[in-house]
Amino acid sequence: MSSESGLTTLGWLLLTAAVAGFAGTAVVVVQSVVRDVGVDAGSFSARFRAARIAADGVTREWRSHHPDDQFEADSLNRRYGERCARLGITYADTEALPFWKPGVLAAGGGWFEVHKLPVCSLRNVRGERERFGSSPVPLEGTATADRRSRQDE
Asked: Largest Cα–Cα distance in the chain?
């Protein structure tokens, strides 16, 4: 009888150890998944995507206005141009370069669709540098492009 009680105790001990090992493995797997999700949410690509969504929001708000005269159109362009520029400050960790294309007043009021591209766009300077290994070529009409063209002359 004593040999059976010893085997029963050993059986329960092995079963308890197996359950504890399984629970420990499950905890490690869950921690790994949570860490991967946390790293992705704070990553460069996630932040840059959020910056592009914010730029699209500025563009949609700007397009919703229908100015009646040139003064109102200029005022809207200035206000939303400043909001676009602030996106570069808000998302400075992504090195996003904001670029504003001012709208043109249509003859009957509202905006003349000169370009279908968003009026507030962001350049992925960090991504270009990582991809090409050098500083990106500046956009036409930016202060950096104007300085470089004057230096080349």
From this structure: 104
Condensed to tens digits (0 to 9), the pLDDT of residues 76-92 reads 889 999 999 999 889 88
User: Which residue ranges make up each domain of the chain?
Assistant: 1-41, 44-152
H-type alpha helices, 44-124: 44-64, 70-90
Distance between CA atoms of 136 and 126, rounded to whole angstroms? 9
| Tally of residues, the chain | 153
Two structure tokens written together for 35:
């860490």
In whole angstroms, give the CA distance from residue 13 to residue 25: 18
25: left (phi over 0), alpha (psi -120 to 50) or beta: alpha
What is the pTM (predicted TM-score) of this model? 0.55
DSSP letter at 121? E
Model pLDDT for residues 6-40, shown as the tens digit of each residue: 667 777 888 888 888 888 888 887 777 766 655 55
Assign 72 a pLDDT band (cuts: 50, 70, 90): confident
